[in-house]
Here is the input.
Amino acid sequence: MWYDPYETESLFTDFTKYVTELHAEQQNEGKVFNNVVYYSRKPWLVIFYAHWCGHCQAYAPKFKEFVRFIFARQTSWKSVLNIGTVNCGSNKESKVCRQQLISAYPRIRYYRAWLSPKKEISGDMRRGLLHTGSKSPNELLKSTLKFLIENSEYQDKYNKGWRVHWKKIYKSGQPAPILDLQKSTARSEEHTSELQSHSDLVCRL
Here is the structure.
């Protein structure tokens, strides 16, 4: 499918059942990136793409396959992970993409729970953790599980961002749901063969 570079059609408009479209400013649909990703109870996985990028168009079905798998009824990770999308091909979202240092597409970043957008609090982690290596559904599944294990709110609830958040709103917080490591690991290893690999090509600015 060919996309007019001057149009800003989302590659995930038909997929909002599973993902949240993130924007630089409030729009009719979706959420504002800074309002929901920072100080979130749950970690975020965010894919940055450009609607006109041929590699993004080719990768989108594989990414959707990965998302459907982890949010399937038997394996659902909805209680421990949010998934967002940012269309860097839209001028309206360019502020977010510059803020997150996105220079090629598609790119995937992980954001811990309770992150602060302030550098003095969250350091470079305020821009998330860049997924490196293959973006095939198999490898993305393993990488996401590893991130959730290493950055769960339970293990990291004393980070400064978490404390600042709850001090700011003057209430004690309930911990985010914890990933069942044993069940999730076994399930992911059992079913990674169901997910097909995909070449890791990118469009650059």
